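Final report, closing paragraph on structural work. Over the funding period we assembled a curated collection of sequence-structure pairs, and we close with a single example.
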Amino acid sequence: MKLARPRRRETPETIIPLIDVVFFLLIFFMLIGRMDATAPFDVTPPIAQTGQDMPGGGATLSVSADGALALNGSATDQAAALVALTDILSGNPPALVRINAHKSAELQTVLPLVAAIEALGAQDVVLVVTPSSQ
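Its predicted structure, as stored:
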């Protein structure tokens, strides 16, 4: 009596390698992507003489060279920015506020903003600068 061998079934193609590739791409783009809000105008911060690494989190207020403002990437004026920052700073503990001012921005534009943000109750106001090349 001769027994017939069962026919080999072809293995179906799996999609597991494709899923791995998708996850690698997702992780890659999450790592290289910028998670911070960018201003709708060009901001080149001044070069630092001294300083520390910038802490994360909080809100970012950008100031262009001509004095235009943007809060977390959306163009705004000073009054609307301060109202929005009041809501942001009302949390417990108050959020950190970063001021990303262009290196050519007038000091008379930036300093009143710092004073107004501190008056709203901000515990930390951080000025963004470019690290020195030393």
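Residues 36-134 form one domain. The chain has one domain: 36-134. We thank the funder for supporting this effort.
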